[in-house]
User: Fold this.
Amino acid sequence: MSVPLPPGATGLENIDPDQIKTFKDFLISYNKLTELCFTDCISDFTSRSIKGKEEKCALNCLEKFLKVNQRISQRFQEFQVLANESAIAAAQKMGGS
Amino acid sequence: MSQKEVQNMQMIQELEIEMMADMYNRLTAACHKKCIPPVYGDPEIAKGEAVCIDRCVAKFLDIHERIGKKLGQLSMQDEALLKK
Assistant:
């Protein structure tokens, strides 16, 4: 049986705990993504097969999800930088006086 | 600092990072739900959706901070009451 390895790992012997964490995060977001796109795109259960429209919807959903996440992460980082800067400024004010 | 103190500090830092990640995941889920309608005719983010996401992230973090402040106040009050 083949065990799926985290990307970048060369063998089972030496896997970095950080890699496992990243891989776990990836799997979690994969599951969330499946849940979201399935709920939003698949609602016809009169047939077993996935229709062209359903597949298109799910693939668009995936692509958009990734873009939305990217955008959110950009905005989040911007706030993070701002918060850090003001924390540093406050610390300097305290230490400088 | 003693070894115990260093250890505790590390634990607190790890917890802070973990909670930050949890907050981030919740933010992502909330803003996706609020800004992206469940119709996927197009894989691009629409203009209005992009603006919505930007505001949603800003507002979420703003509220997070405000609630944190209030929570801090309330727990200080509680502690003061308990000491009486």
Summary: Residues 3-83 of chain B form a domain with the Helix Hairpins fold (CATH 1.10.287.810). Residues 47-83 of chain B form the longest helix (37 residues).
